[in-house]
Amino acid sequence: QVQLAESGGGSVHTGGSLKLSCVVSGLPFADYCLGWFRQVPGMERELGAIAGIDSDSTTYADYVKGRFTISKDNAKFTHYLEMNDLKSEDTGVYYCVADVIDYGLAPDYAYWGQGTQVTVSS
Predict the structure, then answer these.
(1) What is the CA radius of gyration of the chain?
(2) Contact predicate 35/96, CB 8 Å
């Protein structure tokens, strides 16, 4: 059974930082593309960042470039989203995703976590 478990969400002030973690089990971690989407209330889920099977292959949505960094630790079966300079519009539920295919910006990934809430206030 594939499971993705996020942690690290919380409440911060504008300009603050958070680091999200996603522990993955039930699939060959090193052979999967891993990433993060977010959902703002009333909006569709949108991509934050994707790391391909090759750790050097990453895709970032324009709104996170220069602020968010995706990384993964194959030995810990965990991938991360480090978020800096957070803005109020970053508030939402963040989901980690996994799939053998890199769908880029499309929310077509096969496996999703339950989500972790990030709240940024001024």
Answers:
(1) 13
(2) yes
Tokens of 110: 């096969």
Q: What is the pLDDT of residues 12-52, one digit of tens each?
A: 999 999 999 999 999 888 889 999 999 988 888 888 887 77
Q: What is the model's pLDDT at position 75?
A: 92
Torsion of CA 32, 55, 113, 9, to 10 degrees: 170
pLDDT at 41: 83
Q: Which residues have CB under 8 Å from 64's CB, separation 6+?
A: 48, 49, 83
Record the tokens describing residue 76, joined without a space: 């810990």
Pairing of strands 68-73, 111-112: unpaired
